[in-house]
Design goal:
Number of helices: 4
Radius of gyration: 13 Å
Number of strands: 0
Number of domains: 1
Order of helices and strands: HHHH
Shape: globular
Largest sheet: none
C-alpha cells in the first residue's frame, strides 16, 4: 500500500469513528488531520496533473479545516463523514484513466 492510499484509509477510519459519541477534542483533531490529509492529497493531485482531483481534495481540505468552522450540525456532518469515507475507499480501487 502506497503513502497516498495509507492517507485515504486513515482518513476514512477517522471519519467513520466520528459516527460514535466521542469527546469534542476528538472531532477537532479529526478536522485538523482531515485538513492536513486532504492538503497532501490535493498537492499530490497537482503534482500528477490531475486538476479535478486537486480541486476536490482542496475543497475537502477547506471544508474540514478547524480554524473557521462550518457549522452543519451533527446529522449533516455524519452524512458528510460517511460519504467522504466511502469516496476515499472507492478512490483506492479505481484505476487511473490512460492519457
Amino acid at each position: 500500500m502506497n503513502f497516498i492510499n495509507t492517507i485515504k484509509v486513515i482518513l476514512s477510519i477517522l471519519f467513520l469513528l466520528c459516527l460514535l459519541d466521542m469527546p469534542y477534542g476528538f472531532y477537532q483533531l479529526v478536522r485538523f488531520i482531515g485538513m492536513l490529509g486532504f492538503a497532501i492529497l490535493a498537492f499530490n493531485g497537482h503534482e500528477q496533473g490531475k486538476s479535478t482531483e486537486m480541486i476536490v481534495y482542496g475543497g475537502l481540505a477547506l471544508l474540514f479545516q478547524p480554524f473557521f468552522k462550518i457549522a452543519l450540525g451533527r446529522d449533516i456532518w455524519n452524512i458528510v463523514d460517511v460519504v467522504v469515507a466511502i469516496g476515499l475507499i472507492v478512490s483506492i480501487f479505481l484505476k487511473p484513466k490512460e492519457r
